[in-house]
Amino acid sequence: MTTTLVGTMAVAAALSLGCARQPLVPTTTPTTTPTTTTTTTTKTDVTLPTSLLVVAPHPDDEVLMAGGLMAAMRRAGRPVSVVIVTNGDLGCGRDGFVRESESIAALALLGVAENDVVFLGYPDGHLAQFGNHALGPVQRVGVDGVCAPASTTIARRGRHGRDAHTDRTGEAGVFTAPSLVADLRAVMERVKPAAVVVTHDIDDHPDHAAVAVFTRRALEDIGQGSLLLRSIVHLGACWPQGSQRRGPCSSAPFQPTTPMPPLPPPFGNYVPQLRVPTSLPTSLPTHDGPERKMQAIATFVSQTGPTPTTDWLASFARLDEPFFPVQLEAGPAGTLVRVGGSAVAADVRCRVDAGVDGGANGCEVDAGYRLVLPSSSSAPLRAEVVTAAGVAVGAVAVLATDVLAGARWTIGVDHRGDDGGVVEVTVRRDGVFIGLVVDPQPTTSTP
Ligand SMILES: [Zn+2]
After folding, report:
1. How far is the CA of 124 from the centre of ligand 1 (A)?
2. Can you give the pLDDT at residue 358?
């Protein structure tokens, strides 16, 4: 059955046509795209995907990113699964088990059952440090309530009442990227989502950026094409409580009658191609859309305190939910490639002579951008993307183990004229997705 819900926004293009999945239709500035001859119109059908997976770094991110979309999916009788990567138990200062329960209660309000929620149980605040070698023990509160060093995954709620790694293998998972990616992969293979909501690489929070990377890797590992709906939670001190980058924040948090504001500088031109109304179907009154999302947010009492509508989290309960979509399809040699856009993959010839301490690491200018690998082993390691003119655009987190002699780094340059003329620069090492940066004011010409 196809549930078609009519929105009121301008059409850009269908991200994916002619396949079995039911795409959401992105909506934004009028433009032409490779996948359709449609240019402008005033209406569009917002078609829900046949199934949805939401991947959240911490308990509450799933609701902030996609509370409205999840509720609409469940109203339409479509399956929604949620993966929460950490328990939000940074150090021992926060009770991860309380936060797990808050997520379960919030998701129940939106129609998602506990059996469709998976907690991976990795440690809050450490995901960007995950590499091939196990991260040493971190302070966590165990099931006995005692704060102690721990080196493995733990969870008490969600599907089967334990963390996904233990549930799947009989043993808790260690803190490595392969373990985390394998856990994500297992969920994806089980639920086969047509669309995946996940954090965005440019999110300020290192856990959020890391989850974006690991989710993309998991999808590529299994060669499973999907509509990736990227969502930003942290960008500057205020957004979306106002559009400025720094405080004091300009508006009241809870604004149920306004859409989400543009991103703060310098990303004002980076336009989300998809805005999903929180009142879907549109016949729903506002008080069952943003208000319902606010009700779900208010469940996270450990985060909001006693007056949730005055907390920053309330600023996500708006008329819509913005996403930066990418339709990924199976490409050559097990890769996933983006459908549409005008991506240019460029091999960059990097000098990586002596690991991270070589001092002369870097890549030659290609495709308008240069990758500068870290020349010191001091953490955190970040590979900078700079323009041909030497202007820093952004950086992706890398691990010492990524910067290996002989590694082949690749920059993919994607001119996204359909969402404000910005450029997304994708960084890979030996074909493995490392992350991407966004150049909001590109000086390079569109090919
Ligand atoms: Zn978070």
Report:
1. 9
2. 38
- Choose the weakest-confidence range: 28-42, 326-340, 378-392: 28-42
Contacts of residue 445, Cβ cutoff 8 Å, sequence gap at least 6: none
C-alpha 210 to ligand 1 mean position (Å): 11
Which tokens hold the place of 364? 């030659």
Query: Do residues 165 and 183 make contact, with C-beta atoms less than 8 angstroms apart?
Result: yes
Which range of 237-251, 301-315, 397-411, 422-436 scores highest in mean pLDDT? It is 301-315
> Token pair of 417, please?
């004229």
Provide the token pair at 318. 């708006």
Tell how far the Cα of 199 is from the centroid of ligand 1, in angstroms: 9
Q: What is the pLDDT of residue 369?
A: 83
Sign of the dihedral defined by the CA atoms of residues 109, 114, 120, 122, in that order? positive
Beta strand 409-416 with 392-398: parallel, antiparallel or unpaired?
unpaired
The arithmetic mean of pLDDT across residues 169-193, rounded, is 97
Residue type, 376: S
* d(CA 282, ligand 1 centre) in Å: 29
Q: How far is the CA of 34 from the centre of ligand 1 (A)?
A: 35
194-211 pLDDT, tens digit per residue, is 999 999 999 999 999 999
Pairing of strands 343-347, 336-338: unpaired
In the block, which residue shows the tokens 């506002």? 286
Å from CA of 58 to ligand 1 middle: 5
Cβ neighbourhood burial of 389 (10 Å; 0-12, 13-18, 19+): exposed
| d(CA 30, ligand 1 centre) in Å | 32
